[in-house]
Specification:
Helix content is 83%, strand content 0%. The protein is built from two helices and no strands.
Length: 76
């Protein structure tokens, strides 16, 4: 049960990171009209989105690990 809750929390964190990165990219896109935005700022926003997808991967791995532990690997 604890692993399932942890997987859900990590998935929610990943979703929040993707949403925050998307918001940051949209904000940088609008700021681009007034001033020159450094490349570092774009990298941080894109890194935040990639980190969110990484969190989804970790949550999926935890979910699959829970299934393998409870059901077993199987085989004769």
């Amino acid at each position: 049960m604890g692993t399932t809750i942890l997987a859900w929390l990590i998935a929610i964190l990943g979703l929040l990171m993707i949403a925050g990165g998307t918001w940051d990219v949209a904000d940088l896109w609008n700021q681009r009209r007034q001033t020159l935005v450094p490349l570092r700022e774009w990298g941080i926003a894109i890194g935040l989105i990639c980190g969110g997808f990484g969190m989804f991967g970790i949550a999926q791995a935890l979910r699959l690990l829970r299934v393998l532990v409870t059901v077993g690997v199987g085989g004769p």
